[in-house]
UniProtKB/TrEMBL annotation:
One of its GO terms (molecular function) is cyclin-dependent protein serine/threonine kinase regulator activity. Residues 42-121, 201-292 form the Cyclin-like domain. This is Cyclin-like domain-containing protein. It comes from Fistulifera solaris. InterPro entries: Cyclin-like_dom (IPR013763), Cyclin-like_sf (IPR036915), Cyclin/Ssn8 (IPR043198). The lineage of its organism: Eukaryota, Sar, Stramenopiles, Ochrophyta, Bacillariophyta. It comes from the Eukaryota. GO terms for biological process: regulation of transcription by RNA polymerase II.
């Protein structure tokens, strides 16, 4: 008798035990899991920028898929490169964008080349990365900056680098599609609700309610904080409207905009009208975690610019040193 799979089709935006991840149960530390997730979401952000898609649609949806997937599946089973490509491809379909599988693979190949060259202007960051053999892929360490940039420009036509009829392309296609199917199975094939649960969708509404939407740059700054929230697993820990309110609080504080608490009773905060009472601690946690992303000494920069070796046993298909990447230099 064939093995049956039971799918959980319930819509649960906030997971009951978000800290109880598959990686944690598999012996992966909190810091290591955070580092790998930051690495994966940085790939999603760069891919969205490269393909010029909206941050409130494809990128945010891909990040939610990515984080929810890794709540069910361990980092020792699927590496972040595969998960990022699978999440991005699935997000493209959910958002009904006209981006092909070939474009997705070509985009991630371009990201690989740029990261392999470690195209940075911050010498201190480069030096830190080069001292971490377990983190960095240092084959280009001796190349001067101008030569790195030249190599990237020479090889920028990534779609021509892969023969769409060759064995390498077929293997890439199979791995990406297989990972996409793993994500769907892990999430119970219930993903249609995700685009309607992004914090971005609340920003303009809340600013209009507070009558501060006329302040130049406030909405964009709050929007940027919502983008930052996608880097972390906040989407499985907090409701979207809470993240939106936290983003507005940070944006208003940064721009010196006074939010209209004065029109309310002294015991009521503006966000309590929108979120209800009893969420002050949650808003505080969200704001602190978003601000921590701006710490240049943290692991955020390193995860965003360097290669992070996968935790998959016997290496993974998308490791920088694997035959698949090296064969298309």
């Amino acid at each position: 008798m064939s093995k049956r799979t039971t799918l959980d089709r319930r819509i649960v935006p906030v997971l009951p035990k978000p800290e109880d991840t598959a990686s944690r149960r598999d012996g992966v530390s909190v810091a290591t899991e955070r580092y790998h997730r930051l690495h994966g979401t940085s790939l999603l952000l760069d891919a969205a920028d490269a393909l010029n898609v909206s941050s409130a649609s494809c990128y945010a949806t891909a990040c939610v898929l990515f984080h929810r997937f890794y709540h069910q599946i361990s980092l020792r089973e699927v590496d972040v490169w595969s998960a990022a490509m699978g999440s991005f491809l699935l997000a493209v379909k959910i958002e009904e964008l006209t981006i092909s599988l070939k474009q997705v693979i070509a985009t991630f190949l371009r990201l690989y080349r740029k990261r392999k060259m470690i195209l940075l202007e911050d010498d201190e960051v480069v030096q830190w990365i080069m001292k971490q053999p377990s983190i960095a892929y240092d084959s280009s360490a001796a190349l001067p900056f101008a030569q790195k940039d030249s190599l990237i420009r020479e090889n920028d036509n990534t779609s021509a680098s892969i023969n769409p009829f060759g064995p390498l392309w077929k293997e890439w296609q199979e791995v990406v599609i297989e990972t996409e199917n793993k994500i769907l199975r892990a999430l119970g094939f219930t993903v249609y609700w995700i685009p309607d649960h992004h914090p971005h969708k609340f920003i303009l509404y809340v600013l209009r309610v507070l009558e501060v939407d006329s302040h130049k740059g406030l909405a964009q700054l709050a929007w940027n904080y919502c983008n930052d929230s996608c880097r972390l697993d906040l989407c499985v820990r907090f409701e979207a409207h809470l993240m939106a309110c936290a983003a507005i609080c940070l944006a208003a504080s940064e721009q010196g905009v006074v939010l209209p608490d004065s029109s309310l009773p002294t015991t009521i905060k503006w966000w309590e009208v929108l979120c209800g009472p009893g969420h002050e601690a949650e808003l505080d946690v969200i704001q602190k975690e978003l601000l921590a992303l701006k710490d240049k000494e943290s692991d955020v920069v390193m995860a965003s610019v360097a290669f992070v070796k996968s935790l998959v046993k016997n290496e993974s298909f998308n490791d920088p040193q694997s035959f698949s990447w090296e064969s298309i230099k």
